[in-house]
Task: structure prediction
Amino acid sequence: MEIGLSHYLIISALLFSLGLYGVISRKHAVMVLMGLELILNAANINFVAFARFGGMNMDGQVAAVFVIILAAAEAAVALAILLNIYQHFKHVNLDEVDQMKE
Amino acid sequence: MDLTTLAFYFFAALTLGFGAVVVMSRNILHAAFSLLFTFFGIAGLYVLLFADFLAITQIMIYIGGILILIIFGVMLTTHITGVDVKSGRTGSIQLGGAVLVTLALAATLIIIATGTAWNESPAPEVTSTAELIGTSLLTRYLLAFEAASMLLLIAIVGAAFIARKKN
Amino acid sequence: MTHDTLLTLSVFVLLTPLLSFMINIFFGNKLGRLSGVVGTTILGIDLLMAALIAFSKLVTYGGEHIIQTRFEWFSPGSYAISVGYGIDNIAAIMLMVVTLISFLVHLFSTIYMEGDRRYPKFYAYLGLFTFSMLGIVMANNFLMMYIFWELVGISSYLLIGFWYEKDSASNAGKKAFITNRIGDLGFFAGIMILFMTYGSFMFEDIFAGIASGTLPFNNPTMLTLAGIGIFMGAMGKSAQWPLHVWLPDAMEGPTPVSALIHAATMVAAGVYLVAKVFWMFTADALTFIAIIGTITAFVSATIAITQVDFKKVLAYSTVSQLGFMIMSLGTGGYTNGFFHLVTHAWFKAALFLAAGSVIHAMHHAMHHMHDHHSDPQDINNMGGLRKTMPWTYRTFLFVTLALAGIPLTSGFLSKDGILAGTLAWAKLTGGWHWIVPVMAFTAAGMTAFYMFRLTIVAFHGEPKTKIAGHTHENPVRIVLPLVVLSVLSVWFFYSPNPIDASVGWFHARVVQPETAVPAAYQWEFLIQDHQAAPAENHGSHHALNALQEETHHYHYLAMFLSLLIAGTGIALAFAIYQYKLISADALEKRFKKLHTFSYNKWYFDELYHATVIALMLAVSKAMAWFDSVVVDGIVNLSAGLATVAGKVTGLFDHVVVDGAVNLTARVTGFFGSRLRKLQTGNIQFYVVMLLLGVILLFYFFV
Result:
C-alpha cells in the first residue's frame, strides 16, 4: 500500500493520544510538559502531512514553523513557572498544587 | 515494499515506541531521553514529507533547545542525587479514567482520519524548501513573523523575570 | 544715527531693565549680594543707551516732532489695532530722567538695602518698575500706555509693600493700588470714548481725528469728558487731590523706592500723560485740570507744614509740587509744567535720597546704642546733623533752595515760569480764576517755609537726642548720587540766564504743541496765531500764542512776587525754628484747631473712611444679609426637599430593589455552593473533563 495521507494522520492521532495520556496521568509537572510537547509534535505532523498531500504546500510548513516557535516560548515560560512552584512548594506534583480551589 | 515505505514504518515505530516510553516510564530521565528519540523519529517523518527545512529545525530547536530546557527543568526540580528521580503516577481511579479517555480519543481521531474524504492533491517535489519558507515568512506571513518575534522576546523577558530569585 | 537705529536702540533701552528683572527674579537667590551689582550695572548700560538716544533726538533731530513706528498688532473684526512706540522730545528727556534716577537709586540701594532678606527681589522689582515707566515714556498709543500704566501700578504695589511683614506697609501697598484703580477707571473710560469714536488707540490718529472736527458722539462735552477721564488716570498716579491719599502712606516702602516713585517713575507718569495728550484737552477740561492742580498744591502745602515725619514732609511737598505741574498744564503752560517735572525730578530724588541717608545714619546710630524704640524718621529726634553729616547737609540745603525756588537753581526757573503762567492765564480768562495764582503763590511761600523748617529742625542747632549725636556720614555710594542730583539742580544745565528759562535749550526743544481741539471749544489764547508768529519773533523769544506772550510780560512781576513770598517763608522759618523769636509751641497753641486740622491731613483719610469706605461696608453688609437670609434660605429649603425625596427613594430601594437583588444572590449562592465541589484545583481533572466534553460533542453532532 502506498504511504498516503491517512498513514500520517493515524501516526499523528496515536502520538496525540500518547501525549494526552502523559498530560493526564503524570504527577510530575516536567512529565506533563513532555506530554505537551508530544501533542504539539502530533499537530505538526498533521500540518506537514497536509502540506505534502492536502495541497497546503508551503503554508502548512510555515504553520509548523510557527508552532515550533510557540513551543519554544511555551517551554521557556512553563519551566520558569515550574521553578517558582518548586521554590514555593518544594515539589512539582501537580495534584498537590491545588491551593486555588475554593 | 520500497525503501521509502520501509523508512516510513521505521520512523513511525521509532516515534510511537519512544513516545510510549516517554509517557509510561517512571524514571524522568529515561522519559527525557526517550523524548529525544521521539523527536528524532518525527524529524525523519518530516524528511519523508519533503520538509527538509522543518526536519533540521526540529532537530535544532526541539532536541537542541527544548529538550535541553526540559532536562534542566528536571535537574532543578528533582533531587537527582536522592531517590526521587522516579515520578509517581496519579491515583489509580484517575489513571483508569485517563486510559479510557485516551483510548476514546484515539479511536475518535482514527475514525476521523480514515473516514473523511480528504481533498488529496500531492504537492510537487521540490529540492529545497528553505528558500520558499523564507520568502513566505517575509512576505505573506510578515506580520505573524514579527508578532512571533515579539512573542519570543516577551517570553524571554517574562521567563527571566518569573524565574529570578525573589527577595 | 538714523531713525531706524534710534528706534532699535530705544527697544533695547526699554528691555534692558526687564532683563535685570528676569535675572534677579529667577537667579536672585544664587546671586545673593551680587544681584545689586548686576542690577546697577545693567541700569548703568541702560543709562548710557538712553543718553545716546536723548542726545541724538534732542540735538540731531530736535526739530522733528516725533520719531516713531507703528505696526498692526491684531485685527478683531473690521478694526485694526495698531500699536507702536516713538521718541519725541519730552520722551527723550524723560528717558534720561528715568534711567539716571533709577541708576542712582540702584547704586544707593546697594548700601541702603544691604543685608535685607529679599535683597535680590528688591532689585528685581526696581528693574520691573523702571521697565514699566520706560514703556509709558515710549508709548505712542493709549493701549500700550494703559498696559504699562498698570504695570507701574503693580510694581509700585510690590515695592511699597516690600516689607510686607509690617501691617502698615502692606496696607500702604494696597491703598496705593486701590486708589490708583479709581483713577484708572476714569482713564479707561476716557480711552474707550476715544476708541469708539476714532477706532484707533494711536495718539496721531486720535489727534488727527479731533483736529479734523470729528467729535465723540458729535458732542463737545464728550470730548471734555474724555479729557477729564484720561486726566483721572493722571490724578491717581500723580496723586492729585482728592486721590492724593496714597502717596504719603507710600512712605512705608524703602526710602530709595520713595525717591524713585516721587521723582522719576510713578508720579511723573501722570504729569507726563497729561503733557503727552495735551493736544486734546478742551478749555473746560483744562480748567478742571488747573483747579485740581491748584487745590492739590495748596492743600498739601498746608499739610506739610505740621508733619514731624521726615519723609512725610517730603511726601506732601511732592504732592504739592505735582499740583504745581498739573496746574501749569491746566493753565496752558505746557513747557513750564513739563520743565518743572524734570527739574523737580532731580531735586526731589536728591531730597529723598538725602532722607534715606539720614534715616540710614539714624538707624546705624540706634543700632549702635541698642535703641529699638525711637522713631528714626521723626525730625524731633534729629537736630545737629549738619556737623555729623556734612555732605548730606550741603546737598540737602542746596536742593531745598531749589525746591523753595531761589535764583541760581533749576527750581527757580521752572517755578517762576509756572507762576507767571498762572498770572497770565488769570488775566486772560478773568473773573474768579484769579484764585488760582493767589493759591499758587501762597503754596509757593508755604513750600519755602516748610522746607526750611525741615532743614533747620533736622540739621541745625544741637542734637535733640543722643542718637542724632552719634550719626555719621554715609559711604560714597550713598553720597555720590546726592551730589550728582544736586549738581543737576544748578541753573546752567537748562538756561544760560539764571533768571530766565525761555532762552535755554529746554524751551527751544519742548515746544507747546498746537492744540487739536476745534477753535470753538478751546481758549482763544491757546490757538496758534500763524500770521502773528513771525512778526512777534523778537530776539530769541518766539511766542506761539497769546498766552505765552502774556506770560512773558508777567515774567518779572512773578519773579519779584515769588522771591518776596519765598523770602518771607524762609525768614519766618528761621525766626521760629532757628532763632526762636516766635515760639513754635505758642503758635501751635494759638492756632490749635488749624494745627490739628493740618496735622491730621485735613482728615481726608477719616473722611474717606466715613463716606466711601463706610458706604462700601454698608453695601457689603446688605449683600451679606441677602446672602445669608434669602440665598441661603432658598438653598436650605431645596436641600430639605431633596432630603425628604431621598428618604422615600431610600425606602423603596431598601425594600423592593434590595429584596430582588438579594433573592437573585441567594439563588445563585445555592447553586454555587453545590457546584463548587467540582472545582478540585487539579488541572488534570479539568483536562479529562474537557476531553470528555469534546468527544461527546463530536458523537452528538457528527
Observations:
- The CA atoms of residues 52 and 162 of chain B lie 36 Å apart.
- Chain B touches chain A through 81 residues (CB under 8 Å).
- The first helix of chain B runs from residue 3 to 24.
